[in-house]
Amino acid sequence: DARVTQTPRHKVTEMGQEVTMRCQPILGHNTVFWYRQTMMQGLELLAYFRNRAPLDDSGMPKDRFSAEMPDATLATLKIQPSEPRDSAVYFCASVPEGRLAKNIQYFGAGTRLSVL
Amino acid sequence: DAKTTQPNSMESNEEEPVHLPCNHSTISGTDYIHWYRQLPSQGPEYVIHGLTSNVNNRMASLAIAEDRKSSTLILHRATLRDAAVYYCILRDDRANAGKSTFGDGTTLTVKP
Q1: Are B78 and B18 in contact (CB under 8 A)?
Q2: DSSP string covering B49-83, please?
Q3: Does B55 touch chain A (CB under 8 A)?
Q4: Going residue by residue through chain B (112 aa), what tens digit of pLDDT does each one get?
Q5: Residues of chain B neighbouring A101 (CB-CB closer than 8 A)
Q6: CA A64 to chain centroid
Q7: Nearest residue in chain B measured CA to CA from A112
Q8: Beta carbons of B97 and A42 less than 8 Å apart
Q9: Which of A35, A54, A66, A102 could cross-link to A91 by cystine, CB 3.0-4.6 Å?
């Protein structure tokens, strides 16, 4: 049963610490999306990559957030330094090759981040 | 980006059909209409999508208005497991960007 895997599932950290969240897309999928979900803002698109290259990261705060795909099997989202307002659930989703608008996004279970 | 409007919440009785509406009056000709749902403490999951014609799959049906300014997700027999937040989103096919914006969604409550 192919699925998107996110680690860690939960992360509690202190303000100012670096946080790295990882996402393993479904094998063969070439597009990865990062979303953030909070009660106030709902589900927000942060960035997405295709064939490991960033297509759009306009939703991501540039000063502290960075997203990369070191290889086809791993996407990372890093926050440095973290702040309490970053507390949220972070989801990644992968999409198979083809027209993005037609294809299904497969979401991971998310990483719940709490910054104290 | 074209936006969607959905009711905040809806209620249904178990084993009855549910019609979840979505308005997207500024939809462009290249926008695909997708529906996802999110069960408590889970990531969103795909339900159905379409462009112009009505669509059916094992989970639901999607009815798209002729002018494409609105659509309706139909769950034929609601079960307690269908209680979730349902999102109607538009995905832009221009330049194969595929960018999409999730709105607030509709929280569906299913009563036994």
Answers
A1: yes
A2: EESSS-EE-SS-EEEE-TTSSEEEEEESS--GGG-
A3: no
A4: 668 999 999 999 999 999 999 999 999 888 899 999 999 999 999 999 999 999 999 989 999 999 999 999 999 999 999 999 999 999 887 766 666 778 889 999 999 9
A5: 30-32, 91-93, 96-98
A6: 14
A7: B41
A8: no
A9: A35
